[in-house]
């Protein structure tokens, strides 16, 4: 009964066209206590129902699942330091030689939030040079400016550290160790996918191909986006997080990842994670415990963990299937988490 309001809210999300379809889960250290899926994984050009094994384009949630985890593993393994600088990996750096890895992970590098690499008449191998050449938006460390460009650079750093492509790194360091068998970049196969946005260039709805234009330009493998996953695999990942990285990350690096590196900025940022600090707007709502952490994805995905209670909340939607102008998910997501916190208080 305590989860009835959550189900009602999810149903209203469908009827109010917040999204065409969804998969949702709430769980603890001991396992999942609520799961639900509904609506359509695709409405156009034909309707296809949502299934529990639908693969979602995670968009920027890829930053946490892929690039962040692989970076934390590299630090654990002694392959990388947070204070290694761009100048140690790229040349020339155009004045950005001293920017450290930690600034990329906390979005304090001063690098532009977004550059339309896919429109710049360059080849993918020129992406790094183009980003490094771009004008800074502020000094490094001055403020948090959420930067997909910074995470593209971080992915390229990992490729040098491990001497292999990013998709193979993430499979080796994240998906395989955690047993996430239905999670990958560039998925191949006749899987059920949550369709995303209409693409006017190809005159079709994107389905099974990455939605993010820059990640698509980079052949589907990028530090900022590109991972597809099922709800089951996301709950596996969340279970690792609520158990503080046990048997996957060291206690030291897991604790450091959730340290607030930007307490005086408009956003509280850990290593890759968006942290909750009361008084600052937060996509995970207002009722999570201070220090709670998570991330969102542009396509309508999110994963948040309440650090104090050890509860995780996953909401996967394909809200951009109605068009990226549909921003109703922003308010809906906060209300979903607020209602879920209350439901879990009653569940206990």
Structure description:
The chain is of the alpha+beta class and 348 residues long. The protein has a single domain, classed as 3-Layer(aba) Sandwich (Beta-lactamase). 32% of the residues lie in helices and 16% in strands. The protein contains 10 helices and 13 strands. The protein has helices at 4-15, 61-76, 101-105, 127-133, 148-162, 166-178, 213-217, 231-242, 251-257, 329-347; strands spanning 21-28, 31-42, 48-49, 56-57, 184-185, 198-199, 204-205, 227-229, 268-269, 274-275, 293-297, 301-306, 311-317. The strands form 3 sheets. An 8-stranded antiparallel sheet has the order 3-2-1-13-12-11-10-9, with helices on both faces. A 3-stranded antiparallel sheet has the order 4-8-5. The protein has a two-stranded antiparallel sheet with strand order 6-7. A hairpin with a 4-residue loop joins β12 (301-306) and β13 (311-317). α2 (61-76) packs parallel to α5 (148-162) and α2 (61-76) crosses α6. The longest helix has 19 residues, at 329-347. The chain is globular. The mean pLDDT is 97.
